[in-house]
Amino acid sequence: MNRHNATAAREVRLLARSGALTGPTANLAPGFVQANLAILPRDLAGDFLLFCQRNPKPCPLVGVSEAGDPMLPVLAEDLDIRRDVPRYRVWENGDLVAEPTDLEPYWRDDLVTFAIGCSFSFEDAMLAAGLPVRHIEQGCNVPMYRTSIQTQPAGPFAGPLVVSMRPLLPAQAIRAVQVTSLLPAVHGAPVHLGDPAMIGIDDIAKPDYGDPVSIREGEMPVFWACGVTPQSVIAHARPDFCITHAPGHMLVTDLLNRDLSLL
Amino acid sequence: MNRHNATAAREVRLLARSGALTGPTANLAPGFVQANLAILPRDLAGDFLLFCQRNPKPCPLVGVSEAGDPMLPVLAEDLDIRRDVPRYRVWENGDLVAEPTDLEPYWRDDLVTFAIGCSFSFEDAMLAAGLPVRHIEQGCNVPMYRTSIQTQPAGPFAGPLVVSMRPLLPAQAIRAVQVTSLLPAVHGAPVHLGDPAMIGIDDIAKPDYGDPVSIREGEMPVFWACGVTPQSVIAHARPDFCITHAPGHMLVTDLLNRDLSLL
Predict the structure, then answer these.
(1) Structural domain for B244, as ranges
(2) Could you say which residues form the signal peptide (chains A, B) (predicted)?
(3) ipTM for the complex?
């Protein structure tokens, strides 16, 4: 993966680092890969890494740190994971205990950082291909659903696959399969399309996370594995201690979306 | 495109050439590309070539001869288009006038041969990917339908797109889009999936060509552009003279299916 022309991404990180940016990162540093964040103590990191290996569609790893090391040079040379995300969530035994903008007081020398690809990248590719992304059109969050599809468990990490949904006309759905198949590092091809009940979704108008979007005449819902899956799985595992990003407040990396494409 | 290990394909052609083979070619010379055939007088060949250029999904050309030349060395070195297909159909003003096994008495020095990719190749790829092909399971012909999608006309050649249909579960349909997208020389990705009415198909149980197949619980019909389209378009244009293969009696080439794949 190339890293170049990374000024915009670095600028976002420096704003977060200085405390000037504490809000969501959608539309910031366009073209750059943004990542979901999971930070776990070393004694859980092995199982979580295995969980990601077994569930690459919801958990495509774009970077994993050394234990205790707050740097992640594979994603950006000067990245400091303790300060470069605008807002974090700190969890103890499954309970949210803080939403800091800086991890300095929480950092431990046994923490391992997992950066997980995010759908912002493939939505970029869909828009570039002329495909509609309804929740962007409607200015809301993508609708997400817990499904009846179970992830492959690893240690304490287990639970249902969470999917995101974008409505498309059939010919657009075929094009979207092509476009997103080339991006396995950010969830890849859809996991389902058509009848929501087949994957255990009873009411498409009531997402479990995010906002509902309108499905127009002739469109079918198309479902992708979602980066909320690992968060949901971690919440279910209730580790003594862990850190995630606050929803929408992503890690902005120096990787380019276009460099993730297989072709 | 490589040509090697072509003994099996050549054997089929030599059997047809000698008159020993006059039946369908399905399952003969597995792995080799079989092609639809359209032979037209030179004064129509330019428009038909343009029609194929404008409609690459139903009319993917794998070879076009020089006018009057019965050889097609791009498909096989010793191929003689007048004798190497098991059975032909000869048309005059849109009427079927003969079904010979040899074109010797009909050949003219202004005839241009068009060889058009056929779904046998992508069905091979689907089976290799572990995907079901229902009409093969059921031992019948693939169901085909005239649609409300119009082809891009060229000269006298115009008319509706004809599609073939294979029922798949949604996850299989996604995989089938991936597999067949890599094979644009043999119709490529599906053109539609799901609701047949959206492309003007009123009754999925009543195909316009071929045989109906069962669609099982949870499956959706998946539609590909079909090589019957050019035949239907030629029938509609009613040229003074033309020749096609008899249905199912294809031209067996020395090209390998696997060499058609983009990846």
Answers:
(1) 7-118+235-260
(2) none
(3) 0.85
